[in-house]
Please model this.
Amino acid sequence: MDKQVFLDKVNEIFSENQFNYISADKALSDELISLKMFEQPIIGITNTNNDSFHKLKQENIIGKHFMLPKEWLCGAETVISLFFPFTEAIRKSNRQNMNYPSNSWMNGRIEGQYYINNFSTCLVKLLNDNGYEAVSPSLDKRFFMNTELKDNNKNPINKPYTSNWSERHVAYVCGVGTFSLSKGLITEKGIAGRLTSIITNLKLDADKKAFSRYDENCIMCGKCIKNCPVNAISFDHGKNNELCSEFLNSILIDHAPWYGCGKCQVSVPCEFENPNKMNLI
Model:
């Protein structure tokens, strides 16, 4: 399978997957029934021998608990990262009350993640059906993400709010986007969206990165600082994960299993485009 055939198949899966629409039994209000959650994804591809993956093991980035692509899949050749931008309808709804997440944003966070998990499973199956091995790390039993100081095997790690496979960092390595002040990823289609990734032994040509600095797409306007309902973002320290997590937990208590916030991803210059590129036009 060559690269263009693969990309065409990915877009075909996106077009045909029915889970990209909020179902009647999950919609938090009637007007959200059948609402589309995501636009067509941005796809970034890199090779597993990319030196940047090893840099993610540094303690000042992720840490030694980060698993390299070939640790997830022996013989892996390629890492594929996908960014799914939220639709205008979901983004617009979350601009209305900057102190509390909208219903459609919470549906997009929970049902949207279900869709992305299903999409990732379909993509792994596509590769398997064509004779290739593949894994989606975030769906693998070895994956861990926690707020504690131990991994799945109770081994100590140096910092909380971490994981052994970071979709944001992997997306950066794959050339999908760069980091923002709020620690989200700013892509050519903005910051408001969700990420997933696949590792496979199918060898595909790597995409060329369109940037050279880890925060190149962020214009440091500070709008996300003003938007945050709990003052969890600052110029000096970026995002305070603990304050952010506490707010998300309070939403979860009120609306379980739904939660979310996303105020740092809407009503900002990077909501649906790369503001740095727009400034150059």
Notes: The mean pLDDT is 94. The beta strands are 42-47, 78-85, 134-135, 145-146, 162-163, 177-179, 185-187, 193-200, 233-234, 238-239.
